[in-house]
Design goal:
Blueprint (H helix, E strand, L loop, with lengths): L1 H33 L8 E7 L7 H8 L11 H11 L3 E9 L3 E8 L2 E8 L22 E4 L4 E4 L8 E5 L11 H13 L8 E5 L3 E4 L4 E5 L4 H18 L3 E5 L6 E4 L6
Parallel strand pairs: 1-3, 4-7, 7-8, 10-11
Antiparallel strand pairs: 2-3, 4-5, 5-6, 8-9, 9-10, 11-12
């Protein structure tokens, strides 16, 4: 009786060992199958949209280090981060797996919203006239997109707004954050008010000053929509009163407004 029980126990143990070994073999087979050369990326194709600032396609393919990666376990976020860190003009990359061993990349570029010209901080005075700023060299002009990313060099040609930014220097790949995002929002909104947004400056990182008549000062750290609404009301009232505005300061709860003297007769 005891011998029969021992035999049953041995058979159950051997059965468990066999099932466990079979399970391990299946897992190993699956692992080696999906890590075989069949699923190693060999072919890369590129498509670009709104992009004219990259190197050649072969350079991008090489820097992506996609070749020989596994299509099953491919980590697109790491590749996108790597390419964006080198090619600042890339905004988005869309990856499409082409089984068994291909990958297609659609690279979408950043759209320039303004041109930035860095100037020494000590020149950032409220009374400085934008028209008197010396013409910068091509190496001093940078393109920035709506996310505040400085992504390429530019020149003075074209119709993009020009912003003088008093911070000493700019670097490609730099993200200027909320200040420049708010400045771009303002410049996009004041056009319909009849305000020329071609030239402006950001002083001390917090104030946007337009190079127009009237000169308008915005506080970039405050609610932009409220300032724009106040500006619209001031302009409409001045038009009704047939008054000529010289200066509007929107940095305060109650905007400061200065009118041009009315001509006699």
């Amino acid at each position: 009786m005891f011998r029969r029980k021992n035999n049953n126990s041995k058979r159950n143990l051997l059965k468990k060992i066999f099932i466990f070994a079979l399970f391990i073999l299946i897992l190993l087979a699956i692992y080696f199958f999906f890590n075989s050369s069949l699923f190693k990326i060999k072919n890369i194709s590129l498509k670009t949209e709104s992009l004219d600032c990259l190197g050649n396609n072969e350079e991008i393919k090489k820097d992506s280090e996609i070749v020989s990666q596994n299509t099953i376990f491919f980590n697109s976020k790491n590749v996108e981060k790597k390419l964006k860190n080198k090619f600042y003009c890339i905004k988005t990359i869309i990856f499409a797996k082409k089984f068994p061993n291909g990958m297609e990349l659609t690279i979408i570029g950043r759209k320039a919203e303004a041109k930035l010209i860095p100037l020494p901080i000590y020149e950032a005075t409220a009374s400085s006239n934008l028209e008197n700023i010396a013409t910068p060299s091509a190496t001093d002009i940078f393109l920035v997109d709506g996310e505040g990313k400085v992504f390429s060099k530019g020149d003075l040609a074209g119709d993009l707004p020009i912003i003088l930014i008093y911070k000493g220097s700019l670097n490609l790949g730099e993200n200027l954050g909320v200040y420049i995002i708010n400045a771009l929002k303002i410049l996009n909104k004041i056009g319909p008010f009849g305000i020329d947004s071609k030239l402006s400056k950001i002083a001390t990182g917090e104030f946007l000053v337009t190079g127009t008549v009237p000169k308008i000062i915005f506080k970039l750290t405050e609610q932009i929509d409220i300032q724009l609404a106040s500006l619209q009301l001031i302009l409409e009232q001045a038009k009704i009163d047939q008054s000529r505005l010289e200066f509007i300061d929107l940095r305060f709860d109650k905007p400061v407004v200065r009118f041009a003297p009315k001509k006699n007769g």
